[in-house]
């Protein structure tokens, strides 16, 4: 990958993870940008080498749109739309955009359309699709059907915002079972605490329910606890027709990972109204959450020959977030997805 030249816009915590991921993927960082030029200059000088010198450092991202093959957009949500449209217009071959893809349904669709027309391959960093632990859990519950067909997905996630943190889990539930969201109902916090990223951002917590439709026609419901006064837990349960599986993406092994209890294989034909004692099922699981590893693998997927269609998932996950805001304004009424009409125009500055 050493022949690719990359630039990173936004040098906060996530932007620096993008740089570490590019290093791990063997992709050269040729340019960096931050609103604070001193931050960009310092980082660029720290990466100076005898062979390539220092990356270009700037506070104006427009100066990085020529001479690069890959653009990493690691800024906050409201800026993604303008940057990705400009990248597409500049003909940059590859763009990795942080989530949320944007702040309205209309904008996400415009970004995807612009990239499609220009030939720019766009990915959204929905990192749980690339985490080893998540991949192993997906194999168990979807491909191996250790707990049968899904009936319910519970995400006990805690504070962090429906757009910033919840979006990851909306996408995770859909990805686990090759499903898409078809409705959302929510009650969001009416007076949320000030956003840690700044007063200009709006991203309350709350309780969100999502209806999912699998590719094979099967339906299930996801319930997500994202209240601000609930400690961050990030534990997920899949309740299936044959058992229950639990997933934890933070706790290191051996205490964390995944587990399941299910009907014994030789008793799955027993009438379901009869009590059958479930037994533990071994699920392989990998290391705890490693965002750099996941971002590296997302980058490698993006520039590889068989890229996953994460831009479409980026659109769907933003629809869930904006649909949750609409639903909460309507007293928790269900909002059909994908968004249409006036729902597409709703713009909320999520992070």
Tell me about this structure:
By secondary structure, this protein is an alpha/beta fold. It has a domain at 5-128 and 293-311: Rossmann fold. It is 32% helix and 23% strand. It is built from nine helices and 15 strands. It has helices at residues 13-25, 37-46, 77-89, 105-118, 132-143, 162-176, 291-303, 310-329, 342-345, and strands spanning 5-9, 28-33, 56-58, 70-73, 94-97, 121-124, 150-156, 179-188, 206-214, 219-225, 235-240, 243-248, 258-262, 279-281, 335-336. The chain starts with a strand and ends in a 6-residue tail after the last helix. The relative contact order is 0.17.
The main β sheet shows up as:
9 strands, mixed
CATH top level class name of the domain at 5-128 and 293-311: Alpha Beta
The strand line-up of the biggest sheet is 14-13-12-11-7-10-9-8-15
Q: What CATH architecture of the domain at 5-128 and 293-311 do you see?
A: 3-Layer(aba) Sandwich
Radius of gyration: 21 Å
* Topology-level CATH name of the domain at 5-128 and 293-311: Rossmann fold
- The tally of beta strands, per DSSP, is 15
Strand content: 15-25%
Task: List unreliable stretches of 5+ residues.
Answer: none
Helix content: 25-40%
Mean pLDDT: 94
Q: What form results from the Cα inertia axes? A: globular
The count of helical stretches stands at 9
Distance between the termini: 31 Å
Q: Structural class, judged by helices and strands? A: alpha/beta
CATH superfamily of the domain at 5-128 and 293-311: NAD(P)-binding Rossmann-like Domain
H and E order: EHEHEEHEHEHEHEEEEEEEHHEH
């Amino acid at each position: 990958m050493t022949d690719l030249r990359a630039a990173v816009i936004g040098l906060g915590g996530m932007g620096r993870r993008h740089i570490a991921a590019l290093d791990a993927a063997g992709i050269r960082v040729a340019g960096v940008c931050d609103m604070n030029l001193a931050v960009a200059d310092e980082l660029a000088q720290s990466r100076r080498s005898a062979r390539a010198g220092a990356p270009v450092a700037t506070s104006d991202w427009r100066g990085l749109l020529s001479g690069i093959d890959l653009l990493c957009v690691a800024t906050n949500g409201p800026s993604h739309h303008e940057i990705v449209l400009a990248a597409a217009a500049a003909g940059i071959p590859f763009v990795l955009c942080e989530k949320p893809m944007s702040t309205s349904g209309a904008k996400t669709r415009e970004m995807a359309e612009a990239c499609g027309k220009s030939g720019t391959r766009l990915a959204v960093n929905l990192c749980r699709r690339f985490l080893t632990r998540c991949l192993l859990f997906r194999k168990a519950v979807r491909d191996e059907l250790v707990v049968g067909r899904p009936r319910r997905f519970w995400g006990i996630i805690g504070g962090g915002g429906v757009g910033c943190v919840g979006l990851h889990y909306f996408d995770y539930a859909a990805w686990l079972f090759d499903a898409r969201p078809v409705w959302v109902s929510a009650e969001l916090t009416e007076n949320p605490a000030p956003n840690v990223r700044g007063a200009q951002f709006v991203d309350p917590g709350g309780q969100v329910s999502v209806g999912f439709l699998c590719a094979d026609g099967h339906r299930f419901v996801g319930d997500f606890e994202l209240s601000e006064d609930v400690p961050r837990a990030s534990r997920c349960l899949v309740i299936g027709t044959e058992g229950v599986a639990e997933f934890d993406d933070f706790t290191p092994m051996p205490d964390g990972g995944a587990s399941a209890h299910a009907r014994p294989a030789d008793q799955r034909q027993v009438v379901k109204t009869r009590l059958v004692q479930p037994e533990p099922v071994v699920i392989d699981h990998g290391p705890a959450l490693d965002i750099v590893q996941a971002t590296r693998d997302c980058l490698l997927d993006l520039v590889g020959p068989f890229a996953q269609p994460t831009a479409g998932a980026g659109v769907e996950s933003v629809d869930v977030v904006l649909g949750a805001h609409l639903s909460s304004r309507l007293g928790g009424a269900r909002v059909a997805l994908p968004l249409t009409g006036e729902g597409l125009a709703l713009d909320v500055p999520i992070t």
